[in-house]
Amino acid sequence: MALDKPYLDVPGTTIFDADQSRKGYWLNQFCMSLMKAENRTRFKADERAYLDEWAMTEDQKQAVLARDLNRCISLGGNIYFLAKIGATDGKSFQQMAGSMTGMSEEDYRNMMIKGGRSVEGNRYIGEKK
Question: What is the number of structural domains in the chain?
Answer without folding.
Answer: 1
